[in-house]
Design goal:
Number of strands: 21
CATH topology of the largest domain: Endonuclease, Chain A
Strand content: 15-25%
CATH class of the largest domain: Alpha Beta
Largest sheet: 13 strands, mixed
Number of helices: 14
CATH architecture of the largest domain: 2-Layer Sandwich
Length: 534
């Protein structure tokens, strides 16, 4: 019997045989990924994505190169670079798409008129690539599909543009959506995360209150100058979000997910009289109806990182929740969470159990307070956020979640506190494992919404990401020696959170963007609303 333990604690391998030279069976036990009944018993593999039957959870795949992109300036800039090189097929699945979104926003154009910035929009970029021979497929949740309202969508969907297909997918129930955000380019590179192709989903890591580039594309230079002069805040809040860029076998799983959804949407259109009528009109206009996609080809190895693409699906796939459960159970040093929502009492119980097993475990949760943390009888999400926090306080009574804010001092005097719109969906464990994706921490994200996350095991990437995120919010640099030691880094975080909350209460200057808050909630959910709604 021989054993091997990798540097990233990915797996424990046992070879069993009759003798040293005889045949053996190799058993792989892995602890950071979804498996068992949550993912139909899959095993780690380097096999192509086509080997996974439709509707089943993809297995963990080795051989990937992964980059973690933080905030819109870095993430959309990287996307723009890859799009400009596209020659084959671009596949985009998103919750909401506004083609006026500017992917690149250089400071030199911050005060420029819309015509000067048009080239940097998603719409113009996709049309350039289609004109050069690439095929673009765009899949959007049906509820926000706007072929009539949006100038780009109207042109692509009704008049037709060579090489650009637009398709919507309606959610099968009343309380959910297709919330996945993925992109693949030429079958070579893939992206997934929480970032929508919306004009407000962009910011720099500085999250400056007066940033003139956080304006709609159609805004003029005069409006943006108002922000530069600190006379009017930008209409979009500072925004924090993440995306992962992948090359390697896991890209095939992103493509397989897209192909599965594209086939589902094509089949649904063929069964509905309204969409059949629309397709007849489009055919008369010379627009060919969309056709199903084949399974993707095998993707070559590009690196050494293990990645599992995990999903929540309307038909009962709970892979995102499964990896959260396994990773939290593995935590020995810390758990760091950033999420737009923090309203899953089940997850709160899992975090409490982890702390009870290990009272020295560090925990940081960055989220939004509901109604500024006060009791509200109008928003049921306040009840579920308070209940989630209360579950953790059973094990750690002093626990307080964190929020992000920046101070905005206007030219005419006076200070406003501007919240940073935390739209991230990330969890890091022990500088070994992390997940980034579209799934919020609520019952919809874990059980019914259509979501997709990447779960990654790579000690170097995980440690680097923790230091980058902490440095961004603590207003320091990733190479700050205080962030290298986990105990010192988390102590620094809690010191800033307490200091800044007190500074705001007494009208003093904060030392960073991190503030502690409390969330109060009513005894019962308003209107009797169940957790699956919020």
């Amino acid at each position: 019997m021989t054993a091997e333990h990798t540097r990233d604690e990915i797996r424990f391998c046992v070879a069993l045989g009759d003798g040293p030279g005889g045949a053996s069976n190799r058993i792989v036990v892995y602890d950071w990924f979804a498996h068992g009944d949550a993912s139909h018993g899959v095993e780690p593999t380097d096999e192509p994505a086509a080997a996974v039957p439709p509707g089943q959870q993809p297995p963990p795949r080795g051989g990937n190169a992964v980059e973690v992109l933080v905030d819109g300036e870095q993430a959309w800039g990287r996307v723009a670079d890859d799009l400009e090189q596209a020659t084959g097929e671009i596949q985009i699945a998103t919750w909401m798409c506004r083609p006026d979104t500017e992917l690149r926003r250089p400071r030199s154009l911050a005060l420029a008129e819309p015509d000067a910035r048009e080239r940097n929009t998603l719409g113009a970029t996709l049309e350039r690539r289609a004109s050069a021979g690439a095929h673009v497929r765009l899949l959007i949740w049906g509820m926000v599909f706007t072929p009539i309202m949006d100038r780009w969508m109207r042109r692509w969907f009704w008049r037709g543009r060579d090489g650009i297909d637009v398709l919507e997918q309606d959610y099968p129930g009343l309380t959910g959506s297709y919330h996945q955000k993925t992109m693949t380019i030429d079958g070579r590179v893939g992206y997934c995360g929480g970032m929508n192709l919306k004009e407000n989903d962009w910011d720099t890591i500085a999250h400056e209150a007066w940033e003139p580039r956080r304006f709609p594309h159609r805004s003029d230079g005069w409006s943006r100058e108002e922000a530069v002069q600190r006379r009017r805040l930008p209409p979009f809040l500072p925004r924090h979000d993440l995306m992962v860029r992948i090359e390697g076998p896991a890209v095939g799983d992103l493509m397989a997910n897209f192909a599965e959804r594209w086939r589902q949407s094509c089949a649904a259109r063929a069964q509905q009289w309204s969409t059949r009528l629309v397709d007849r009109v489009r055919t008369r206009l010379g627009v060919e109806p969309p056709s199903p996609l084949p399974q993707p080809p095998q993707q070559p190895r590009r690196g050494d990182t293990w990645v599992q693409i995990v999903r929540t699906t309307p038909d009962g796939e709970h892979g995102v929740l499964a990896v959260y459960r396994r990773a939290i159970a593995n935590a020995r040093k810390y758990i760091y969470i950033e999420n737009q929502y923090f309203r899953s009492p089940e997850l709160g119980g899992l975090l409490a159990a982890a702390i009870q097993r290990n009272p020295r475990l560090h925990l940081v949760v960055v989220a939004w307070p509901i109604a500024e943390g006060e009791i509200t009888f109008l928003d049921p999400s306040g009840y579920y956020t308070a209940k989630t926090v209360a579950a953790i306080r059973v094990a750690r009574p002093e626990f307080r979640p964190s929020r992000l804010q920046v101070a905005a001092d206007a030219a005419q005097g006076g200070r406003r506190w501007v919240p940073v719109d935390v739209h991230a969906k990330v969890m890091l464990i022990d500088d070994v494992w992390f997940t980034v994706g579209s799934a919020n921490i609520n019952d919809r994200g874990f059980r019914t919404e259509a979501e997709l996350n990447a779960a990654v095991v790579d000690a170097g990437l995980a440690a680097d990401l923790r230091r980058r995120l902490m440095a961004e919010h603590l207003c320091t640099t990733p190479d700050d020696p205080r962030l290298a030691d986990i105990d010192e880094a988390f102590a620094l975080w809690h010191e800033h959170a307490r200091h800044n909350a007190d500074a705001r209460a007494h009208e003093r200057d904060p030392i960073s963007h991190v503030f502690a808050f409390d969330q109060a909630g009513p005894e019962r959910p308003p209107f009797g609303a169940g957790s699956g709604l919020f």
